[in-house]
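Thread: sanity check for a docking pose with zinc ion

Original post by kr_44:
Hi all, I'm comparing my docking run against an independent structure prediction. Below are the sequence and the ligand SMILES. Could someone generate the full complex and paste the structure tokens? I mainly care about where the ligand ends up relative to the chain.
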Amino acid sequence: MKLILAKWILTCDDEFSIIEDGGLVFSEQIIEVAKAEDLKLKYPGAELVQTKPDSVLLPGLINSHIHLEFLENNSKLRYGDFLRWLDSVMTHREELMEKLNDENLSKSLDFIAKTGTTSLGAISSYGFDLKACVASALNIVYFNEALGSKPEMVDTLFADLKARFENSRAFASSRFFPALAIHSPYSIHPILTKEVLKIAREENCAVSAHFCESEAELEWLEKSKGGFVSFFKKFLNQSKALIKPKEFLEQFKGLSKLSFTHCVQAGKEELEYIKELNASINHCPRSNRLLLSNKLNLAKLEGIDTSLGTDGLSSNFSLSLFDELRYSLFVHDEQDINTLAKDLLHFSTKNGAKALGLDNKGELKAGKDADFILCSLNGISKKEDLALQIILHTKFVKSSYILGEKIV
Ligand SMILES: [Zn+2]
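Reply from moderator J.T.:
Ran it for you. Here is the predicted complex with zinc ion included:
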């Protein structure tokens, strides 16, 4: 049993409680969070973890949507328009995959850990990132992704997905959670979705899908028109969309660990239905800025749990969630900045845990997993300023713990 002390503890509970001169007693799980002086008396045998006087302790960050397989992208892909980007992905995909290797993957995972993330929702399209994810000290919800809309390919694609899922299941552990993903309503055959979600229901695993990301996607799904027409003709010889947005969502009924990524173009009816499904929305603001001209309207998400993701380096310039938090502060400029900062810390802690089905994470509270990060801020005099200042000034964490074990 250990006791770590900090000038400030941000519990990230519903009330956003902050403890000044606090302490956290932990082994693999958190035993108690309270004032330091009380804990020293109550747990005299606990091993003391020394920290600096300006320390701030908070839950490890949760990046609920990332694609590690695209980390070799550096200035290759084209931005400013979703279809221009998609076309460049199709053109350079193989070349980017060829450059990917375990060494670069583990370097990126180390960077992710040093920048404060302790849990990831990693979308894997091919399984090339499996070995590095299994070897990582981070908690990883590993989403084997299904993709493909050609009817004659459904059986083959399903067999491939099942094989990847089975392969990842062999490594399931207290830090590695095999899961399933559906790429998006425009890129998958509804029969394939149905079969994949059948497995998800049997296994009760986490499920995620991209949804209503671009205007072009919405126009295609609703009217089989717009920029996607030439894309589908060129790559798939397809002239009609296979499903409407609402019908796509209806396929996910009854899944308990469910999230949809982006949703920038989702209408009122779709958002209402996402709420009814008790699904979360993974918000990736920097990716949205690079690929779209729109941003997600947070005010429309009343009653829907929102989490934060970096997406992959195919649509971002760093995999640091603190970078994503900083960007979010500036892009959502319609909200009071201090309130937004608190909301954003909730997005990247407890809401991230909900999106990924990691019920025991995302909050500093007795009984939860001892996943936390230690940062430092030396100028704070009012606790009301903490959320904003910690986002503005944290590039790298001082240390990071997962299940009570120091990983950074
Ligand atoms: Zn994505």
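DSSP finds 15 helices and 16 strands in the chain. Hope that helps with the comparison, let us know if your pose agrees.
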